[in-house]
Prior knowledge:
mainly alpha
Amino acid sequence: MKREDMLSFIIELNESEMIKFVRTFLSQNPESIKKAYRLAKDIADQPDPEVISDEVFTELDLYDFDDLNAQVAGADGYIDEVDAIGELFEKAVEPLMDEMRKKIKLGLAGAAKAYCVGIIEGLRQFVEEGTSELSDWFVDLPEEGARQALKEWLASEPAEADKAEVMKLFPEEWRDGDLFR
């Protein structure tokens, strides 16, 4: 079998098979753990803020009244439309906030910054360019979400240069409160 065919086979493994493969490979080749760790850390520390921003924007911009009505009617019975909008917003943004938190916890400063920037930029773009039927319903949630991302990232004590760079990206009209004093 050719090398390219073997590599192709490995790449086609599903997620659970890939996890099992990596664990098995590393347990059978302990001398490769340091190299695998460095490679994994390099990969994890290089997310693209534009991809993150696009994900935030797209997730929010795809919502429509059918989504709102489904959320209002929810599995737990009727909930208020304002609460339903909050839940939709959270479904779109929280997974990326969780990734940022994970990167902070792992000490991956560059990745945490990329997530913070991506979240802020995606929310700003949604406010400025969003065409969702629900754009007006989200009211202050994009600003609050951006503010929360920035607050959590700043709590990780980033380098001053990174802090200044990210603060400049924060929309001017959202700059009030303790974060900007």
